[in-house]
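Summarise this fold before class:
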Amino acid sequence: MMNIYLFGKTSLSGEFFYKYIKSKQKNYKIHSFSRDVKKGYKIDLTNPDSFSLINNEDFILISFAPIWHLADFLNYLFHNQNSSLKKIKGIIACSSTSALTKRFEFNNYDKNLAKKLLISEGKITSIAEKLNINCQIIRPTMIYGSFKEIKDNNISKILFIMRNIKIVILPSNSGLRQPIHAQQLAEVVYFLMLKSIKSKTKVSNNLINLGGDIILNYHEIIESLKNSLGRNNAARSCLILKIPNRLFLVFLLPVMIFSPKSFAALIRVCSNLSGFKKACEITGNKPKSFPFSNDLK
């Protein structure tokens, strides 16, 4: 029986994946690892010596944890506890499209993040090649959704502004985005996991820049959110004000003085960050609208 070792289960995407895989009731065992012993087997990726195999059976490693922690963790095991990796049959790890989109930002925070992601991806694929196993690194973009008290860092911020500030100022030609719900990401990871388990072909390493099924600009995102909310939701009364792109950039200049990182995030509203592989193109499912219910059917 194949074992699934799940790292990062307590993240938004990890929770959705765990719920999704449990609903499938297939012939495998899923073991979640966490620093909180109440939520899984005890592990601290920054302390690789805390890891031990559950049993002596084959396993696939799936990670929604920060990829730089996973890379250092695997690198340590490979060079110091190689026996811990003898039964590993594949790796599926989540990174971020920031590795691609933030490489040439002017602020050091974003440039260093992109560099960290790229180095970590390289470490993991190198280890996978040396172990002669399949490795899938997924770079999702603009993940959204909520699970109990866990919220995303993208759409939830937009909703917060809509509910509290009551006005959103956008450039007249805002950039395109490809929001992907955490459940869609879970479905993609599940599909790739099954493909890896069943694969009889040669070993391969794949890098997938992944987005949702619908491409929208920021105005369309906000309008779609408003239409999806209940009548009494405060965000429905939010006013969308579009101004010329040049005026929008001038309006943001004071932000650059106090926070180059925030300024970079705001001017990216004008950038097209889409064109990634659609989730439905991988899973074969029908394209999902934005936003859609996060309930598993």
Notes: Residues 108-131 form the longest helix (24 residues). Residues 148-177+216-273 form one domain. The CA atoms of residues 99 and 114 lie 4 Å apart.
